[in-house]
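User: Predict Transposase IS66 central domain-containing protein's structure from this.
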Amino acid sequence: MSTATRTKNITALFPEGKIVIMTDALSASTKNVDENKADFSLCNVHARRNFYDLKEYYTEKIDKILLLYRDIFLNKKHNPTERLLFHKKYSLPLMEKILHICQSELTEKFVEPNSVLAKAYKYIIRHFKKLCAFCEIKNAPLENNLSERMLSSNMDSTLLN
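Assistant:
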């Protein structure tokens, strides 16, 4: 079963209201989904990792972004309404700073346009709205590490049996 088919089947399970689907940035993940039934977000851990993996090569440029992401991940509010208000007030401006850094670095040509660092900047710029879904949509996740770990452990146990 394709990713698009699985995603379409998931939205059919929630006829009452919109669900939030966190996907990778591939268009195949969302192309058959009714946008009236689902909101989409992207994982900020994956976006952050694009920079973290380059830290030893571009320390000065990347440290600012990693520190901003650190502050975003500090929120531990459990109530969905409080969490959304917190992220709108505090995390969205930090995400906008990250976007500004990425845009400036590319516009001012401080980075080689075809480098892996430019690719990380372009990812943030291209997917900014979905990366910020946690600041705009109640119950939208900031990241999906727990889900991926659960899927991975289920696949591992299936393979071992």
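The longest helix spans residues 80-107.
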